[in-house]
Each structure stands twice: as structure tokens, then as C-alpha cells.
Write a structure and sequence with these properties.
Blueprint: E1 3-7, E2 11-13, E3 18-25, E4 33-39, E5 46-51, E6 58-60, E7 68-73, E8 78-83, E9 92-99, E10 114-115, E11 119-124
Parallel strand pairs: 2-11
Antiparallel strand pairs: 1-3, 3-8, 4-5, 4-9, 5-6, 7-8, 9-10, 9-11
Length: 125
Amino acid sequence: QVQLVESGGQSVQAGGSLRLSCAVSGRTFSNYRMAWFRQAPGKVREFVAAIYWSGANTYYADSVKGRFTISRDNAKNTVDLLLNSLKPDDTAVYYCAADSSSRGTYYLRSGYNYWGQGTQVTVSS
């Protein structure tokens, strides 16, 4: 009933910018808590950013705060992540996640019950 599809991942040079998009199909999207996670080879999937229903409340991991921006358009059922000042350490598969239960912790994987398949971001030095 709920499907998330990420797009926009590609290879960029350090210092560059990239915009990722997550298209969500399903009902009551405006009530979903949305987030982006990322996972690099040999590392656990880590929290990147989250945004709540109205878009007024946003949260970021310390590693990306000030560089990344999460936004949502409830009318279009999309969630974007703007990545600025990219560093090689940002290289990872980026996943979009949704929480329809309003349960759990926003920065933990267990706080989300729907996931996309991911999009690859590669940052070269």
C-alpha cells in the first residue's frame, strides 16, 4: 500500500551539491514522519535527517547539520534531501523512510516501517 522510490543519486566531486528525491505512494502521506538514512560499505545504516508532518520540525545528524536540508511537499507526495558541500565520507546508498505509526524514535531505523530501495551517492576527492 505504501511505496517509496528514491532518485537523484550520482557521482559528484567533493564540494559539490546534489538533490535527492523520494516519491511516496500511499494514503495519508501528510501524516507520515519522513527521514533519510544512509549506508556505506562496511558500515551500519545511519540516520541523516528527519521531517515531521508540517515540515516545520526537522532534525539532522551532527555529521550533516549545516550542509544537508530535508524538505517535503505533501501536495506532491515527495520528500527531498539537498546535499551541499559534499565530502568523500558522504559516499553511501541513501534510503528514504516513512513512519505511519507515530511510534519509535526518529533517529533510529526501528522508528520507520516503510523503506525505499536506495540511491547511490558517490563523492570523489
